[in-house]
Write a structure and sequence with these properties.
Keywords: Magnesium, Metal-binding, Transferase. The longest helix is centred in the first third of the chain and has 28 residues. The chain has 14 helices and two strands, in the order H-H-H-H-E-E-H-H-H-H-H-H-H-H-H-H. 75% of the residues lie in helices and 1% in strands. The chain has a single domain, classed as Farnesyl Diphosphate Synthase (Orthogonal Bundle), CATH 1.10.600.
């Protein structure tokens, strides 16, 4: 685990530095409340692991000793900020008062400040992508998909497994895909490799979302770190609510997506590195996680 912890420390250090440089102080406090209150940092880790699996090298004591390393870490932090911005909006829509075991942004600061917090997170994120046109395009496309997914969830309830899977692809898979593609872009991978890494991560994201739905229906709120039963209460699209799948059957569906992710990863032009093994482990983990 030391391997992963070193990379997570790179993300945390850069994330803290980016947030500390924001203004005014009130905004800094809100951004830090949202982004430094915990979180699994799955998406930034996907970005860094994809970077190394595609042949990139994290050099220098803080991983910022070369342009590829700097880009990889900045892209990893940026995708985490985009994700956090989306969570702020999710909590407003769902009226969720708890996120990662602490008050959600709107519960802590009010609706208006929460919205500006989300905007601030996005602004900081795009400043980290701005030096690379491919990175900007990748994240912009993911944001379009995410927005369409959020809108669909609000106004057009999916009524079939196929419609649910498309929603999961947009709502969760898109940011996972962007994370992996950003890592591959930082490593200067070719278009085919970037796409293969993206397909891997998109499938992981869909599996993650399916498992998230199962946990919402079955887990204990204290163990999960956020309220449970929200999908049913809010009449929100959930694989458990939309289909006739039992939680066990839904978990098996997540396993199918995980297997597809592994197939896509094997098709990518990866180098022989520990990073590939950890990407494989992630595809397995999202199916069995308890938080």
């Amino acid at each position: 685990m030391e391997y992963l912890e070193r990379r997570r420390a790179l993300v945390e250090s850069r994330l803290e530095a980016v947030l500390d440089a924001t203004e005014p102080d009130a905004m800094t406090d809100r951004l830090e409340h949202v982004s430094l209150s915990g979180g699994k940092r799955v998406r930034p880790m996907v970005a860094l692991l994809a970077f190394e699996a595609a042949g990139g090298e994290l050099v220098g004591e803080d991983g910022r000793g070369s342009e590829p390393s700097r880009n990889a870490i900045d892209f990893a932090v940026g995708i985490e900020l985009v994700h956090n911005a989306s969570l702020v909006v999710d909590d407003i829509i769902d009226e969720s008062e708890l996120r990662r075991g602490v008050d959600s942004a709107w519960a802590a600061f009010g609706y208006g400040p929460a919205i500006t917090t989300s905007d601030g997170l996005l602004g900081e994120a795009f400043s980290l992508f701005s030096a690379d046109p491919r990175a900007m395009r990748t994240v912009a496309e993911a944001m379009v998909e995410l927005g369409e997914g959020e809108a669909t969830e609000l106004v057009e309830r999916p009524d079939s497994e196929a419609a649910y899977m498309e929603l999961a692809r947009r709502k969760t898979g898109a940011l996972f895909r962007a994370a992996a593609e950003l890592g591959a872009i930082a490593a200067d991978a070719d278009t085919y490799a970037v796409d293969a890494f993206g397909q891997y991560a998109e499938r992981v994201g869909i599996a993650f979302q399916i498992r998230d739905d199962v946990l919402d229906a079955t887990a204990d709120a204290d163990d999960l770190g956020k309220p449970t039963g929200q999908d049913a209460e809010m009449e929100r699209p959930s694989v458990v609510q939309i289909t006739d799948m039992s939680p066990d059957e839904a978990n098996e569906r997540a396993r199918t997506e995980s297997d597809a992710a592994l197939s896509s990863l094997s098709a990518a032009d990866t180098v022989d590195s520990e990073a590939v093994g950890y990407l494989e482990d992630l595809a397995e983990f999202v199916v069995v996680r308890e938080r």
